[in-house]
Amino acid sequence: MCGTALRTSRAAPPRCPACGWTFWDNPLPTSAAIVVDHGRVLLTRRARPPHANTWDLPGGFLQATETPEAGLRRELREELGMRVRRATVLGFVMDRYGPDRLPLLNVVFRVTPVPGPLRAADDVVELRWFPANRVPLRAIGFPAMRQAVRDFVVRPRAR
Length: 159
Known about the structure:
This protein is an alpha+beta fold. It is built from two helices and seven strands; from the N terminus they run ββββαβββα. The protein has one domain (28-154): Nucleoside Triphosphate Pyrophosphohydrolase, CATH 3.90.79.10. It has helices spanning 68-80, 143-154; strands at 28-37, 40-46, 55-56, 59-61, 84-97, 102-113, 124-131. Strands 1, 2, 3, 4, 5, 6 and 7 form a seven-stranded mixed β-sheet that branches.
């Protein structure tokens, strides 16, 4: 805050020795959906950077007053016109976002949609269903989303 170089250590976050300001590199919360239907997984193609034109799980950043599930439901309506019948937390994955490498905490849900037509909108330019055993992992832009698909779709753990 005052312009003095921050002091770093392995045991504590970077802190200014002059004014005491601490750089808390806290993650931003996001929600992501694994939508599986009849052995197929829904992926979306990103419209914008970072990772424009790569595949992704649908979802996005939470707003200040949203729970992870409410934010996921909002994002799925905005991006796909999808309504959600059920959302179950599968786990959490960490990632980095954009040129500033902002830390992310992604809450990953398994989603059962309400049947109905889907459309690409908002941050999505295309949506496609892939057979669960043929998901194009290398074409998924975010490493954490690749890992989530690996963990919860390709090689699901016993639940």
